[in-house]
Amino acid sequence: MRVTEKKRPPLMTPKRWKVVIVLAIITFGLWFGFYFREIQSPRWSEEKAARDIALATNLIKEVTSINKHVWEQTTWITEGIDQNDRALYLFHKDKELLHTIDASVTLSKESVKSNFNKLKPEAEVIRLSPALFLNNPAWELYYSETVDGTKRYYYDFYTFDKEFKLLNSYKLPTKTGP
Predict the structure, then answer these.
(1) Structural contact between residues 101 and 137, judged by C-beta atoms closer than 8 angstroms
(2) pLDDT, tens digit, for every residue of 43-66?
(3) 67 phi/psi in degrees, rounded to 5
(4) Residue 106 DSSP one-character state
(5) Is 7 helix (H, G, I), strand (E, B) or coil?
(6) Phi-psi region of 27 (alpha: psi -120 to 50; beta: other; left: phi over 0)
């Protein structure tokens, strides 16, 4: 004779499933947060050190942006506001200040982009940033162009003044490796 009246209730009820799913989502979110922080902390530490070096020069009172540039050497370009509320670019590596440029003597990023689009209207700008090229400040333009149906990538360096002259251009290979 079968006993059907005294059947044990199921271990995982709908309420328990919901609790397990919510706990799994929270656990995954916490794990992802810790993982992201662990991965990004070296970069954040570098940026904080570069920001502190720029502020320690007493040339700027506020940092508006900071860029790491790696080409011939690793340099940091800090854009900030000085005590007279003028925009400045500081080019430094480690604790050595290499160049200080008043933003009024150079083109803005928008002007550089529009000038470049006039020179090469078919090109797609991927990144535009201040850089140090041959130990002098420059604008670095990373862009792509489609040539004969093949997308090619280029680095162009332009003077960091109002003239916007081409210093050098590098064409990246379409294929790498053997």
Answers:
(1) yes
(2) 899 999 989 988 888 889 899 999
(3) -130, 135
(4) S
(5) coil
(6) alpha
